[in-house]
Design goal:
Layout lengths: L1 E3 L1 H8 L8 H13 L5 H7 L4 E2 L4 E6 L4 E8 L4 E9 H5 L7
Parallel strand pairs: 1-5
Antiparallel strand pairs: 2-3, 3-4, 4-5
């Protein structure tokens, strides 16, 4: 899969308060880039804790469930768009369907 907005992830882990997210996010990027998802069950097979939302949205737990990553997946083109990365508290303040 091709990931759009990896820079968003880097900007997040470069913040001193989120430096511990770097290794888990790098691992997520490596795993996703090697994946070939054709549908939501393929994501669930790889990331059992992922929440599949409507319209291609997926919520991933990252860093021992400390962080949440919302992505929009275009299965046809093999692209994952990072829409949000933040703590659970930050996640609770957003609508994952519209970010």
């Amino acid at each position: 899969m091709r990931i759009v907005s990896v820079g968003t992830l880097k900007a997040f882990w470069d913040q001193p308060s989120h430096h511990d997210a770097e290794q888990p996010l790098r691992t997520w990027v490596r795993v996703v880039r090697a994946a070939h998802w054709v549908d939501p069950p393929a994501i669930k097979q790889m990331f059992r804790s992922a929440d599949i939302l409507c319209d291609g949205r997926v919520v991933f737990d990252v860093g021992g469930n400390k962080y949440r990553l919302v992505a929009w997946v275009n299965y046809h083109y093999g692209v994952v768009y990072v829409r949000f990365i933040g703590t659970h508290r930050d996640y609770d303040k957003i609508d994952a369907q519209t970010v």
